[in-house]
Amino acid sequence: MGKKTALLCSVLLGLSLTGCGVSTTPEIIMPEQPMQSAAVPAAQPSAQNAEQNPSAQGSSGQSTDSSAASGNNYTVYLITMDLTDSYWKSIDDGCLQAVSELGNITYKWTGPDAHDDALQSACVDDAVADGANAILIAANSADGVNESLQKAAEAGCKIVYVDSAASYDCVTALSTDNVAAGRTAGETMKAALQEKGITEGTIGIMGVTVDTASCVARETGFREAFEGTAFTLADTVYMQDDVANVKNAVAAGLGQNYIGFFGTNEGTTVGVGEAAKETGTETVIVGFDTSDAVLSLVSEGVIHATMQQNPGVMGHDGMTIAIQSLEGIYTDTNTKTDTGVTVITKDSM
Length: 349
Known about the structure:
Layout: H1 47-52, E1 63-64, E2 74-79, H2 86-102, E3 105-110, H3 117-129, E4 134-137, H4 146-154, E5 158-162, E6 172-175, H5 178-195, E7 200-207, H6 213-225, E8 230-233, E9 237-238, H7 243-255, E10 260-263, H8 266-279, E11 284-288, H9 292-299, E12 305-308, H10 311-326, E13 335-338, E14 342-345
Parallel strand pairs: 2-3, 2-4, 4-5, 5-6, 6-13, 7-8, 7-9, 7-10, 10-11, 11-12
Antiparallel strand pairs: 1-3, 12-14
Helix pairs in contact: 2-10, 3-4, 5-6, 7-8
């Protein structure tokens, strides 16, 4: 069966929602393998029609129903790591777009407030109890939610990973190839340094936690890009959910004449940018993700570039494939799709 991803331009919106637990910085755990597209092509409605469609009004814990000619009505949950970051809202936007196209879907977005396996497992259990036919999940860790996912599968739920995959079997997983994305970030920084005539010096790297697989993979790719050069890449400093760790490290690095900094996720990228802006010191910063805070720093020229993931595509195609699987149209299992990154600079905005 031929398969082709229907692309969707995601709209990044700030959002603050409430689940259960304590707020924390979302961390992204990704599959290691590059992925290939899997969704059967679907028609794309205009943005105006999507805004006018009542189905496109959704938020945490609230259902979105739409009707179409198809006789079956499915309940589908999106479960993210938390509900506090605009990145997850972009995945929700992609899901909503697919819901408006497909019809006959009761859609709910939920998740914990904290980056916590037990809390996310409870969300999966609640979705199953509510009669979910499919669950799209950004898994909090590789193994921590597997028991609940197994129970969901035994209850007949289709499991689709968006952004972050657990190790339990799925229909498909859609995410970023983080090593490749990190390598792109490194090449972007090398080009920016070359434009400034800088061919050596020390670069600081800001991670999240030592076991945050996605950010570790991005760092791996970033370091690979500098192999064989005269640049020195400093030991990684981990934010550990405290942006002050990043800001202090940036201030110390600037004091040692670091020529650049790499932020491996949205939180570290903002922390690096804010620290550089506060000191008024010019340095080359490359980071990840496109929250309003990151884009504002890019537009000001504080951050040279950020890697934009494609969460809208993850949500849209994840929802499409989930329904196709329920309808028996999509019959593969454990397929993978790399949804790629786009380099965003001040000039490209």
